[in-house]
Amino acid sequence: MTGYEFARQALESRVALENVFLLVLVGDMIGVPVIPPYYSLRLLPHVYPQVATWRRRVLREREFTDEHEFHLHGV
């Protein structure tokens, strides 16, 4: 149980970095031109399987309290 919190934090960090990477990669499709299209098209075949799950994760409906995890240490 001591490693659970570390594993959870590592998973959250991975998801956050994956969101940023895919936003930079396919951002021009939604109007955020960050990287030249040539390079994004070269990288697209490598991340194509992840695009559908990323789109579903980013565009799902959320509540305000979903983004914040309240840690009650010592309670």
Give an account of the 3D structure:
This protein is 61% helix and 0% strand. The chain has one domain. It is mostly helical and 75 residues long. The mean pLDDT is 78. The two termini are 17 Å apart.
Backbone CA Rg: 16 Å
**N-end to C-end Cα span:** 17 Å
The proportion of residues in beta strands is under 5%
Number of domains: 1
Please count the helical segments: 2
Kindly state the mean pLDDT as a whole number?
Answer: 78
Following the backbone from N to C, one meets helices and strands in this order, namely HH
Helix content: 55-70%
Low-confidence stretches: none
Q: What overall geometry do the principal axes of the alpha carbons give?
A: elongated
Biggest β-sheet description: none
How many strand elements?
A: 0
- Helix/strand/pairing class, anyone? mainly alpha
List the helices and strands and how they pair.
Layout: H1 4-26, H2 37-59
Helix pairs in contact: 1-2
What are the key terms here?
single chain, 75 residues, mainly alpha
